[in-house]
Amino acid sequence: MKIINHQTNFKLIFLLFSFLVSFACYLPLLTGSDKDSGGSNASSNFIFAYSLLLVNQSKANYCPIPSQILRKNTDYPVTLAIGEPYYFHYNYLDNAKPQEEVRNYLLRITKQNGTSVTYKENTNCNSASSGFSTVTPTNVTTTEQLYDLYYSNTFRQSWQIPNIYSVEVTSGNPTITLRQE
């Protein structure tokens, strides 16, 4: 069962309100009222501006705000509450590359022996119905989990990022280290 947070509730209420205001603005157009002698239509101008607002709202980011932006080749020790996700992004400046160049990227999670960590990604924050999916590590030891990262939407400026990532300690020592390489 998916839990909807307060931010999502506010956005849904705003979208409903926007729909009602749009409908109230279109009604005078349908009845032919609100026309002045200059041929302009105040309702049309308002509707156009309001429609632009709605289009921008449809691109809203429904993901949680990241707690950290990971810089490449930097260790980030974090202590988490067991069962609570920790949200982050990757810094796009550290990962910029020419289009024709192929690079391998990696997320390294260092943990104590006996600790279980889950890494998840949400690659569709522009949709209110988006959710997180668990990523399978490419290499696992008792003290490390390695994940391949793919150059796509992962490494873009934060205001363009339609994704967010999270780690969650499910058991063991809640202190882990994140490192993007």
Mean pLDDT: 74
What's the architecture of the largest domain in CATH terms? Sandwich
Order of helices and strands: HHEEEEEEEEEE
Which structural class fits the helix and strand makeup? alpha+beta
CATH class of the largest domain: Mainly Beta
Are there runs of 5+ residues with pLDDT below 50, and where?
A: none
* Number of extended strands: 10
Give the strand order of the largest sheet, numbering strands 1, 2, ... along the chain.
1-3-9-5-6
Shape: elongated
The total number of structural domains is 2
Strand content: 25-35%
| Radius of gyration over all CA atoms, rounded | 23 Å
| Percent of residues in helices | 10-25%
Organism: Leptospira brenneri
Keywords: Membrane, Transmembrane, Transmembrane helix
Protein name: Lipoprotein
